[in-house]
Amino acid sequence: MTVPEGLDLAYRRDGRDVVLSVRGDIDLSSAPYLDQALTELIDEQGNLSIVLDLEHLEFMGSTGVALLLKARERAHLRGGRIILARPSTIARRVLEISGVLSAFDVRDDGVDPAVTDGR
User: Fold this and answer.
1) What pLDDT digit, counting tens, does each position of 5-51 carry?
2) Which stretches of the chain are DSSP H helices?
3) Which of 14, 21, 26, 52 could cross-link with 10 by S-S, CB 3.0 to 4.6 Å?
C-alpha cells in the first residue's frame, strides 16, 4: 500500500513494545494505511503494547477516531494495550468531543519510560 500524502509514520521498537509516531493527518485517504500498519503490529507481529505518539498529528476526523477505537479493541482482545502519547491539541479535542478520550491510556509526558530506556 502506498503511503498517502499528508501522513508520515515512524516506528521505534524495544522488545515487544512499539512506539508509532504519527505525523500529519488521519483522514479518509490515510486511515487505511494507518489501519494496515496497526493491524500488522498487533495481529501479525504480536505486539502487546503500542504507544501512538500523536504530538505531531495535525488533523483527525471521525474516521481516525473509529480507527483508534478499533485498534484499541483489537489490542485488548489479545491482552495488549494502545497508549496515546502527547496527543496534539487537535487530537485531544476530537477525542474529547467524541466522548472517547477516557477509553484510552493517555500520557501527556510522552512515551512509556520502559520503551525509551530499553528496559
Assistant:
1) 899 999 998 666 799 999 999 999 999 999 999 999 998 887 889 99
2) 31-39, 62-77, 89-97, 113-116
3) 21
